[in-house]
Amino acid sequence: MKAAVLHANEDVRYEEIETPSPKAGEVLVKVKMTGICGSDVPRVLNNGAHYYPIVLGHEFSGVVAELGEGVTEFKVGDKVAGVPLVPCMKCADCQNGNYSLCKNYTFIGSRIQGSFAEYVILPVQNTIKFADNVSFEQGAFFEPSTVALHGLRCADYKGGKDVAILGGGTIGLFTMQWAKIFGAKSVTVFDISEDRLALAKRLGADYVINTAKDEIEKNKYGIVFETAGVPDTMRLGFEVAANKASVCFIGTPHKDLTFTPKQWENMNRKEFKLTGSWMSYSAPFPGDEWTLTAHYFKTGQLKFDDSLVFKKFHMSQANEAFQLYKTPGAVGGKIMLYND
To answer: Residue 99: phi, psi to the nearest 5?
Structure first.
């Protein structure tokens, strides 16, 4: 098969490699569509890969091409999305259903061969079937959607409150939708991009705020989700949270984060609860984050807009796609790679 193989920093080659064969309990998936995740970018551009050569890619969809021995849950031709985490299932965290916290996991597309290829192997439990009316583009957004829903789970989300989403990127827009689906009183998306704010409105946001120019009401929101991983928005979360609010950090920071004593004291004085969220899994594995994504994409309540996709490249152009990330601000959404 053909694959986009990372051989060294900034060295992605589209070349022939051996097509894998599914073992007992595994499924061979023909990849139709795969997204470039923000975590893939430093692996390619900043010496971030665990080893070389490696096939990256973990946000993907495709069709079942072959079944390993004993697999009866699927049939050839089923449309499926891939679950990238492969937990050990033996450690204390796995035994407690906290698969995201497993210390002995492997991961499709970073530690073992991923979806930047014509075919990829999945354990049967890592294979999620979705409906015929759900596109392969939507299927490649399962993983970001589940990350968003896992944040609601970590925050012990309950409807009926005003919700703030700090960051209008892919994760933020899915977090906004999940908050709406599960009964928010209102949802407000904060961002500095008018395009992203317009997309947020199309996808159902009640209100949008441009943090670069609009007035921001503090001490208002009963639930706050920070999804950008940016120091300014992480500090803003402490400001906009209401008394007794829940504040959840979903975004991953890449810069040092500091608070003044007055900023940090917001948590003391407001007595809000602060939590983090990591990946997207719960018991029974992989969790209802994945099955609910399949369900709500099927019903249309979880919306998809073509503007979520910035640009599509054939898999043979993977190296060209990654070059776009070298220019700050050049990529305004998800870049997708597709096979013929």
So the answer is: -65, -30
